[in-house]
Design brief:
The protein has 105 residues and is an alpha+beta fold. It has three helices and four strands, in the order ββαβαβα.
């Protein structure tokens, strides 16, 4: 798939516990960066399976912030580290778009 292509993905788990994805043409890939729009539901499933509300979730390779978005949507506290300024900007904007006030530390 070329960069800039658009697809929406649906995630499901088979009877063996393996996760699969099916995509259509509205899924968004960042130009030259990580994909993010369709991945939140997949990460949310992992968050629900392995954490409780109020837990802190740490992502040492934050990228565009998908893990923190999923954490915050599910009542967890998201924390992460990202060195690439353009990914930090995307992550901060995604959180701001959720009505949150992200902080850099």
């Amino acid at each position: 798939m070329s960069r800039g292509a658009r697809k929406t993905c649906e995630w499901w788990e088979d009877s063996d516990g393996v996760w699969w994805a099916g995509c259509d043409e509205s899924f968004v890939f960042n130009e030259g960066g990580p994909a993010f729009n369709g991945l939140v539901p997949l990460v949310e499933n992992a968050v629900l399976n392995h954490t409780d509300e109020g837990d802190v979730i740490y992502d040492p390779f934050l990228g565009s912030g998908t893990t923190i978005v999923a954490a915050e949507r599910l009542g967890r506290l998201g924390r992460g580290v990202e060195l690439e300024p353009r990914y930090v900007a995307v992550a901060l904007q995604r959180l701001a778009d959720m009505g949150l006030q992200p902080e850099l530390a």
